[in-house]
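Issue 218. Parser rejects a valid record. Input:
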Amino acid sequence: DALRLALVGSANDAASALAEALGRQWGASTFEDAMMLFSQRAAKKAREIGMVDSRFENPTGLDASNHITTAHDLFGLAEYIWEYHPALWEITLHREVIVDPPSDSEYGFETPIRMPSTNILLDEFPALLGGKTGWTDEAGETLILLYPVRKDLVSLNIAVIIILGSQERFEDGREIIRWLEEAFP
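Output the parser choked on:
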């Protein structure tokens, strides 16, 4: 549920909870230690898959002094996920996440939590193969989209659209997808 909330609804608290749980599995005893272990492991994995210009200080992607990435590194990450963990892209196609409350109601809620997708392009472009939204003060509006394009009459390629520093990421995404549809009918 936390993974779906983080990927579909961009729930930063869910991303932090996942990182904390992983950090504790790796031996951390405090929240801060768990975040540090998660960031270290994320950095190591990033280097392994070729993301040489990315640095991680937190699991959410929120602005931090040494938390950066590049369009090139995001392309590599998108490609890696497509090849080795395609179910993650499939999760991003959900229009909504519904989380049922625990059966013991210990957490004080009895009705399901509903969180809509932050990607408003899902209904407009049903051919999308995945996507992730983002926004911070420093990065502006961001968007990654995977969209199929024709290579020839038989096969398809996947265009990885990476939008960074936008003021209108969804309009920018629409324009790029429309161009792809015209250029590769």
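Fixed in the parser; the record now loads. The CA atoms of residues 131 and 161 lie 9 Å apart.
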